[in-house]
Specification:
This protein has about 450 residues and is an alpha+beta fold. Helices cover about 25% and strands about 25% of the residues. It has 3 domains: about 100 residues, RNA polymerase II/Efflux pump adaptor protein, barrel-sandwich hybrid domain (OB fold (Dihydrolipoamide Acetyltransferase, E2P)); about 80 residues, no CATH class; about 200 residues, 2-Layer Sandwich (Chloramphenicol Acetyltransferase).
């Protein structure tokens, strides 16, 4: 008999908690390994979490709508079906330490060690008095994880005096060790929250009229709103616009479309644009950088995030080391990530560690736009609608004429704290040049 603990996963290095939004299995249901078990919502992503092992869902520890810290016991899967058949009846009174004692190895001499004292596992936003647990709100106010609080207690450091560099201003392990070892923490947050940059935005109350429908922000909508406000506050946004002639790309798409489809590759305009950006980010490292306090981090890897619009919000899966992929490989990766984003199949690693972002509102008909930077990155490219338009072209004999060309706008918002206008425009000029003279051999 084996009892498998299912824990709240950490969906990002700066994520401290997650909300269990929906159970996809009921108590007593059989589950297969890697079959979706429940849905969670975090600061970064909405995702389906697969079962770590096949068996029966014997215990549910966290109910829908509850927000709990990462690594909290969420459920127990019993791999022995006969034993699991009675588990649902006892699930409400089964304590995690008892299960731990059953699995514990025998002590020397054959004696079985006694069960350890119950360890509090916060499974509700409201803690029991005196059990040492904290609510999500308290954890946010303290801006730390249990490990950091333990280190702070051992060294008698007041966490509230440390400016955190983690998400929402949380104090990280590196911050607390910096205080202990060097005596001085990192001063400026790496990814500050709106609250850390000034008073929270107070939206005026608006009275609904008869017939109006009032709907509160969803979690992902609230997170997106806070992230956008924070980005506007922390970065000096400037946007440059370039017009691109996509005739060469259109020609290559027509030429290779059928062969690509046979290999399961959809050669979209976005794939060509991502390829052009990936190649040129290596030449312009400041556009592929991040800001940390008063320092610039020049990223080694070129990891391109592709914004995906969902019915319930926006998510940015990341193509890792995009500059090492061929055009076909990049097109396949973009298609795969987009599909799994829409079906909530992304893994935690696939929405982390982006260094540059591309958003494509042009698919909805937008001519051009000025997107907001995805922190802590320093630049984001917006792709406008790609369509046939009249354009003045110069013929080989030097005369000008008006021709029908496949045209589109690209815009890039960048952080003027570290990216100067000349840097941004040189990068965009190289992207434009690459797209207008795209080599056939890059397929």
């Amino acid at each position: 008999m084996a009892r498998i603990d299912v824990l709240m996963p950490q969906m990002g290095e700066s994520i401290a908690e997650g909300t269990l939004s929906k159970w996809l299995k009921k108590l007593g249901d059989e589950v297969k390994r890697d079959e979706p078990l429940f849905e969670i919502s975090t600061d970064k992503v909405d995702a389906e979490i697969p079962a770590p092992m096949a068996g029966v869902l014997a215990e549910i520890k966290v109910q829908e709508g509850q927000t709990v810290p990462v690594q909290t016991l969420v459920a127990v899967i019993e791999t022995d079906k006969a034993a699991a058949a009675v588990a649902p009846k006892a699930a409400a009174v089964t304590a995690p330490p008892v299960a731990a004692a059953q699995r514990a190895p025998a002590a020397p001499g054959g004696a079985v060690p006694a069960a350890a004292p119950p360890v509090p596992r916060p499974s509700s936003p409201v803690p029991l008095k005196g059990d040492g647990a904290e609510t999500a709100e308290e954890r946010l106010r303290r801006k730390s994880t249990p490990l950091v609080r333990k280190i702070a207690a051992e060294h008698r450091v007041d966490i509230s005096t440390i400016p955190g560099t983690g998400f929402a201003g949380r104090v990280t392990k590196q911050d607390i060790l910096g205080v202990i070892e060097r005596g001085t923490p990192v001063v400026v947050p790496r990814a500050p929250s709106p609250e850390s940059l000034g008073p929270a935005v107070q939206h005026p109350a608006v009275e609904p009229w008869p017939g109006d429908r009032v709907e509160p922000f969803s979690k992902i909508r609230k997170i997106t709103a806070d992230h956008m406000i924070m980005s506007r506050r922390v970065s000096a946004h400037v946007t440059s616009f370039f017009e691109v002639d996509y005739n060469r790309v259109a020609e290559l798409r027509r030429k290779h479309k059928a062969a690509g489809a046979e290999r399961g590759v959809n050669l979209t305009y976005l794939a060509f644009i991502a390829k052009a950006c990936a190649e040129n980010l290596r030449k312009h490292p400041v556009v592929n950088a991040a800001v940390s306090g008063d320092t610039i981090i020049y990223r080694r890897d070129v990891n391109i995030g592709i914004a995906v619009a969902l019915d319930w919000g926006l998510i940015v899966p990341v193509v890792k080391r995009a500059d090492e992929l061929s055009l076909s490989g990049l097109a396949r990766a973009i298609s795969d990530l987009g599909e799994r984003a829409r079906t909530k199949k992304l893994s935690p690693d696939e929405i982390q560690r982006g260094t540059f972002t591309i958003t494509n509102p042009g698919v909805f008909g937008s001519y051009a736009g000025a997107p907001i930077i995805n922190q802590p990155q320093v630049a984001i490219l917006g792709v406008g609608a790609i369509e046939k338009r009249p354009k003045v072209v110069t013929l080989p004999d030097g005369t000008d004429t008006i021709a029908i060309r496949t045209m589109g706008m690209v815009s890039m918002s960048y952080d003027h704290r570290v990216v100067d206008g000349a840097d941004a425009d040189r990068f965009l000029a190289d992207v434009k040049r690459t797209l207008e003279n795209f080599p056939d051999g890059a397929m």
